[in-house]
User: Fold this.
Amino acid sequence: MNTSANAGRSHAVLSVASRRRDAEFIAGRPSENTPTDPTEYFGCNVFDDRAMRRYLPKAVYKSLRATIDMGTRLDPAVADVVANAMKSWAMERGADHYTHVFYPLTGLTAEKHDSFLDPDGKGGSLAQFSGNALVQGEADGSSFPSGGLRSTFEARGYTAWDVTSPAYLMESPAGMVLCIPTVFLSWTGIALDKKTPILRSNQALNQQAARVLRIFGVDPKLPIASNGGLEQEYFLIDGSFVSVRPDLLIAGRALYGATPAKGQEFDDQYYGVIPSRVLAFMADVERQLYRLGVPVKTRHNEVAPSQYEIAPTFETGNLATDHNQLIMTVLRKTARRHGMSCLLHEKPFGCINGSGKHLNYSIGSPEVGNLFAPGENPHENAQFLVFLCAVIRALHRHAGFLRAVVSSASNDRRLGANEAPPAIMSLFLGDQLTDILEQFRSGVEVTGTAGKRLMNVGVDTLPPLPADPGDRNRTSPFAFVGNRFEFRALGSSMSAADSLVVLNTMLAESLDYAADFLEEHMQGDQARLGEAVQKLIQTVMDEDAAVIFNGNGYSEEWQNRAPWCCPPFPPTTPDAVPVFSSPEVMALCEKYQIFTRLELKARQDIQLEEYVKTVHTEASLAVRMARTQIYPAAVRYRQELAASVSSCRALGVDASTASLEELSALIAGFEKSLAEMERKVALVNWRPGEEDILPSARMCCSVILPAMEELRSWADRMECIVAEDLWPLPSYQEMLFMK
Ligand code: ADP
Ligand code: MG
Assistant:
């Protein structure tokens, strides 16, 4: 390769090709004091129950334990003792700093480190960490997006420990840091983060679920909580390629790149043998996560080349969300140590699958079990059917809200493409369960008539349902899988918090409705419960069953029929997000005290702001790369072709100008498209704090994105004819297949 024209690319290829083959064993080797049995060190960096028992006086332990189990506020009287214990525990393990970890509306994880040391006024210093510092930190969060919620003169926010998520130690070459998961609010109590609404929605869910349970004669002592099992997909690309691809480095995705001769057509990657370099990385990630108490369980190759998945065992939704943020942090950090880059972008490479995140969702408690699991007897089944109907109704009525929280510039590139759920929100129940609901529904009217005996709520037991009903139906965005629902529309880089909040909230509302309905139809007579449930099933099936679809979500038949019977699943972020300020969503969130109108509007603005910023950054970058990398490569090659033709002809040798003309035409198209693109990028002149962001978002979507696609198509065609040694960007083939 000519190293002057594409020195960066040649160097990247050479460095991957000449990598020491045992490098992974060096990077991924466990430290000498890591036991081989993970149960010996699982959770060793977590201030968990074991640590609490050891470090806290018994009475304080009991009080803290109750706070955690009941999800209530920490008693300030015990906070000092807990803080002291936590500090001793952390310092014994080498920590010298602590930080409140919070989740601002960017969807990222934020931290600000403070030292344990305080000057003692006599020239020395004391290690201090008071209850106040534990329970409440102060964060000048003026630079976090707040959608106009906090003007800068009241920029102070405060953070408060979420006791249901344990503190932990984060290791780094710089030492250990005590991390305290916290909520982040303004001084006036406005939620500026993604955790506060989870806690609020848990409360709403608990209240309404408990109401329904009481109707069934169960009086739960422990709160009913949501559970989340989050499967996380990601790409691993050698770091040397990323450093010479400004698009991967800055935007996290390839803005240019011709389709390689081989992509994922052979299906030879999914569940294939994991390459040893990747396996060493995975094992390293897992050991770190075990120490942090994250119950990682599954790892495998995904469909696209260089794409993988990691999934822990489910936990309470709040903890699972925190742990997913930790997983993303550890994946990124560890990849760098292994000389790779972990891409969590939803669609890093065109023409092959992008990455998503699946939220497996159920509700329950250790006391009442999983409320989405069919029961063993008619009474339990009746209860299960009520919870099932609540989900059907909730999804049918609030699909737009759920769609809105999974929209982003990057996830728009994935949703609706063949790898991800289609752009229609539907619920996969499986034929058997759908049929059963139908039978229960008709039962009320038809019992007694001749023919097939229909099922009766409170009398008949459900036939055993397969834990995993038939085909997993990957074409459904929301699927019932035996004892939980799997929501598959989340983007890989997204926080799971918003989806969890919407699921909890919409379910709370439907459970509230169900409880009212049952109470009204029973009129205080417990003997009429079965009849009331039957009536509820009938009503929900009449009004909301349109959301159930068990077929192929990509079939033409469904694509044509769905818009008439199903809630819309708007194709892009600017279409989807304005639902936040619809009367339905506002009423829902206000009623269950999840968000005030102000908070909703702020979230809408922030999500649209993120969208505009993302598209604008990508567009500017696309222009820069076009001008400084792609155009120069193309004209150099044209020069070579032209020189070759003219020197041949000078010698009287016949030389065709066909290639030269073809390239010239592409260059002309590219130049024109580039000029257009520059003109259009300049049109987006929205600045933070400006009134209405929606018009800018719409313009990004309808004007900028198509212009980028057009520019790219010229570049990708040139990549296929320009000499390899002149092309500056590592190709898809190199990035996806060289390890
Ligand atoms: P698949 O790839 O087939 O969807 P995985 O085993 O990768 O399945 O992931 C399934 C996820 O669902 C895991 O995180 C698992 O712990 C979680 N899960 C299992 N049961 C429940 C449940 N009752 N509630 C929530 N999540 C669950
Ligand atoms: Mg799954």
In short: The mean pLDDT is 89.
